[in-house]
Design a protein that fits this description.
Blueprint lengths: L14 H9 L6 E3 L6 H11 L2 E3 L12 H18 L5 H14 L5 H21 L6 H11 L3
Parallel strand pairs: 1-2
Length: 149
């Protein structure tokens, strides 16, 4: 088992996942906007700006190891919500996860698990505690290795 807790904060959990996101960054241009909380707001922002309004809050401790990759991931995630009109519910997030993981190569088993923990796991956490984990990186480690929310 990989000992992720020994990883430095700037080390991604998966170089392949980070590379996939960077290789596809042109598909999901974004601008920083921390005021968008609804699907309607995100859609309107995109319609007006032609870019996804992406929050840069809580980007420091993620599976990606750097803020830029996390922002690109968030833009990709929001693009799926917009394109498929998927709500910010557990069911909507599961659908977003399924679409995103299908874009990855079939051999990316671990990367798909990371996405599941990051998207669906954090949604389960939010539904239980009415907030997202303070440290997303630690949450994903515990979710994958212990099954805890």
């Amino acid at each position: 088992m990989i000992e992720f807790k020994k990883y430095k904060l700037e080390w991604p959990f998966s170089d392949r996942l980070n590379q996939f996101i960077w290789d596809n960054k042109y598909k999901y241009p974004y601008l920083i906007n921390n005021d968008l909380e609804t699907l309607e707001g995100i859609k309107m922002f995109y319609d007006v700006n032609g870019k996804y309004g992406t929050s840069n809050q809580n980007c420091e401790n993620t599976i990606f190891g750097n803020i830029d990759t996390n922002l690109m991931f968030r833009a990709w995630h929001d693009a799926i919500h917009i394109k498929h009109d998927l709500p910010f519910t557990l069911e909507g997030e599961i659908a977003v996860y399924n679409i995103m993981q299908a874009e990855l190569h079939n051999s990316y088993y671990f990367e798909k698990l990371l996405l599941y923990a990051d998207i669906v796991g954090q949604t389960l956490y939010f539904n239980k505690y009415n907030k997202f984990p303070d440290n997303q990186r630690e949450f994903v480690i515990d979710f994958i290795t212990k099954g805890t929310i």
